[in-house]
Amino acid sequence: MNDTLLSTVTLEEGLHWLDLIGVLAFAMSGALLGVRKRFDLFGVLVLGCVTAVGGGAIRDTLTGQTPPLFLRDESYLWAALFGAALGFGFGERLARIERTMSFFDTAGLALFAASGAIGAINFGLGPLGVIFAGMLSGVGGGIIRDLIANEVPEIMYRRDNLYATAAAAGAGVVWLLYPHTTTFRAQLGGALMVVALRWISRRGWVNLPVRRLHQSEQK
Question: Which positions carry the signal peptide feature in this UniProt record (predicted)?
Fold first, then answer.
C-alpha cells in the first residue's frame, strides 16, 4: 500500500512539473512577442503571464474547475513570471534564434494540450469533448496573446499550420492511451504526438490546404 501511495505521489509530482514546464515555455514565448513589439517590462510580464495561464484557465473553465488552477496554486504564476522575466532579460538574444522561439512554443503547446485532455477525461467528457478541451488548452493562451498584441491569431494563417490541428491530435492520442496505460504515459504520448506533427509541419511535409480565391471571386 505504501508503494502504491508513493507511486501516486510521484505521478502527481511528475504531472505538476510537466505543467510548470509548459507554463514556463509559453511565458517565454509570450514575452518574446512583447519584446519584439517594444512593450515595456510591465507589458512583457503581462503578455507572458497571460500566454502562460490563459490556456489553462480555459481548460479549467471548460472542465468545471473554478477558480482556475493558477489561482489555487501560485507556483504556476511564479513560473509564468519567471519565464516572462527571462524573455524580457534575454529576449533580444533569443529573438535572433528562430529555432529557440519555436522550441518554447511547441513545448508549451504539447504539454498544455496533453494536460487539458487529461483534465477533460477526469471530468468525464467524451472523445470530442476531450479533443476540443485539449486543443483550446494548448492554443488558448496564444490566441489571447495575439489579440492583446493586436495581431491576427497565428493559428489562423501561419504557414506551418499544423498547430491547433497538432494540439487536437495530441489530445486524441491521450484519450486513446488513457484506458490502457498510466496517466503520465498517456500525457507523454499525447505531447510527443504534438511535437512530431509540429516538426513534420515545419519541414513542409504536411500542411492543411488553403483556399485561394480567383480574382473574380474576391470581388
Answer: none
Element holding 151 (H helix, E strand): none
Phi and psi based region of residue 76 (left: phi greater than 0; alpha: psi -120 to 50; beta: remaining): alpha
Domain count, the chain: 1
216 within domain boundaries: no
CB atoms within 10 A of CB 95: 15
The answer to whether 61 and 5 have CB atoms below 8 angstroms apart is no
Q: What phi, psi does 212 have (nearest 5°)? A: -105, 120
Q: Could you list the pLDDT tens digit for every one of the 219 residues in the chain?
A: 444 444 444 656 766 777 787 788 888 888 888 888 889 999 999 999 998 888 888 878 877 777 888 888 888 999 999 999 988 888 666 666 656 667 777 887 888 899 889 888 988 889 999 999 999 988 888 888 888 888 877 777 655 567 888 999 999 999 999 999 888 889 889 999 999 998 888 777 777 766 676 655 555
Q: Look up the domain containing 195 and give its range.
A: 10-204
- Hunting for cell 511565458 — which residue is that? 27
CA atoms of 105 and 31, how far apart (whole Å): 11
